[in-house]
Amino acid sequence: MIIDHLGIAVRSVSAALKFYRDTLGLEVVGKEEPEEVPTEGVRIAFLQVGQSRLELLEPLDAASVVGRFLDRRGEGIHHVCLRVTDIEASLAGLRGRGAEVIEPAPRRGAGGRKVAFIHPRSTGGVLLELVEG
To answer: What's the CATH number where 39 sits?
Structure first.
């Protein structure tokens, strides 16, 4: 398992890129234009940082999960994502050890990869995403 990315909630991906890409000099991964992920209700951009990435998350709707997060907490770290080789086996093991998985099965996230989330009640307050890759 490794850290795949850190998700950062932002009000505008374009505005955030001015800092992360233009000021810090981080390279955008994949498409130069932000990608919309309707299943998550976000517009995203990934930036490479060593062997991990930062994921900038802009809500498509104020009522989305990220939109509500921004209303409550403002911009900042939204989640930590760990890369696993077999997401179903990882989820089964976590459930067996008492972790609260948010949804019953993995779904397709950014880039079409399988993702699942572990509730912050199980992780000491951190939203944890697993991604298969």
So the answer is: 3.10.180.10
Structural domain count, the chain: 1
Mean pLDDT of 39-46: 93
In this structure, the number of other CB atoms found within 10 A of the CB of residue 110 comes to: 22
Per-residue pLDDT of 73-132, as tens digits, reads 999 999 999 999 999 999 999 999 999 999 989 999 888 899 999 999 999 999 999 999
In angstroms, the CA 27 to CA 12 distance is: 18
Backbone angles phi, psi at 114, to 5 degrees: -75, 130
Q: What are phi and psi of 86, to 5 degrees?
A: -135, 100
pLDDT at res. 111: 85
Token pair 């019953």 in the structure block, residue: 104
Spell out the SS3 assignment of 72-121. HHCCEEEEEEEEECCHHHHHHHHHHCCCCECCCCCEECHHHCEEEEECHH
Are 80 and 89 within 8 A, CB to CB?
no
